[in-house]
Amino acid sequence: MSLDALEERIDKAVGTITQLKKDRDQLEGENARLKGQLETLNKKIKSMEDKGGDLASLQDENRQLKGSQEELKSKLENIIGKLEKLQQ
């Protein structure tokens, strides 16, 4: 193998290594960006899950209050009925 051919192969190898380093740097940057996006999305999911739990809790409380409201309505109707009988 001639010295010129060896030099050419070395130059190609250096070029390939340089390109690989550039590609690696780009991929590391992309990886860091994607990790940040993933962290942000995980925080949003957690927040939505918390809000979903709060919503379920509020819905349960609302059902209980409606039940209490119906119970009070029934009692008031009963009392009003008794008062009307007393007035007659």
Q: What order do the helices and strands follow? A: H
What is the mean predicted local confidence, pLDDT? 91
Number of strands: 0
Strand content: under 5%
Gyration radius, in Å: 37 Å
Bin the helical content: over 70%
Coiled coil: 3-78
Organism: Candidatus Edwardsbacteria bacterium GWF2_54_11
Keywords: Coiled coil
Protein name: Cell division protein ZapB
The gist of it:
This protein has 88 residues and is mainly alpha-helical.
What is the strand and helix layout of this fold?
Blueprint: H1 3-87
Description:
With 88 residues, this protein is an all-alpha fold. It has one domain (1-88). The protein contains one helix and no strands. The radius of gyration is 37 Å and the shape is rod-shaped.
Please supply descriptive tags for the structure shown above.
88 residues; mainly alpha; 1 helix; 97% helix; rod-shaped; Cell_div_ZapB; Cell division protein ZapB; coiled coil
